[in-house]
Design a protein that fits this description.
The protein has about 160 residues and is an alpha+beta fold. The protein is built from 3 helices and 7 strands.
Length: about 160
């Protein structure tokens, strides 16, 4: 009796845990249901099935439904500011730190190799409609959400 109840509870927890979270909306935002661009609204991704047979042909972007929910931001939707704090004297415009950020999605996401000129443990202040202060991580990265507006940034 207890084993059956335990298995049912585990199935319920797994189904709830795997449910996609609802998008976070700011005042004035709205959502719209659209056809999935990855599979063209078919719910199947044959290219994915060829590359990753273990995943099958069900589209991983729309979970096989052929539809996705898109957030259409309103005038009060916050902006996500992502950047790298660098020392201008030790870097050039050719250093392409935006590519370094993209490299973090690879196999060494949590601990990318440090680059010359990156300021670890730096302090960045955004002052405008609101004031927010953030510390860079060990690799100079910052991420902060700000409401729409103009900001003075000091580091």
């Amino acid at each position: 009796m207890f084993l059956v109840v335990g298995l049912i509870a585990m199935v319920v927890v797994l189904k709830v845990g795997l449910k996609m979270r609802e998008p976070q909306l700011a005042p004035g935002d709205r959502t719209e249901e659209r056809s999935c661009r990855q599979c063209g609204g078919q719910g199947k991704d044959d290219e994915q099935a060829k590359q990753y047979p273990e995943l099958g042909s069900r589209c991983s972007f729309c979970a096989g439904s052929g539809k996705v929910t898109v957030v259409l931001p309103g005038p009060n939707h916050p902006a996500l500011v992502v950047g790298v704090l660098v020392d201008e004297e030790k870097t050039t415009s050719e250093d392409e730190f935006y590519l370094w950020r993209a490299e973090r999605t690879g196999e060494n996401f949590t601990n990318p190799a440090p680059k010359d000129g990156v300021l670890a443990k730096g302090h960045v202040k955004f002052q405008g409609k609101v004031t927010k202060e953030v510390e860079t991580g060990g690799h100079g990265l910052i991420t902060v959400k700000l409401p729409p507006g103009q900001y003075e940034v000091t580091a």
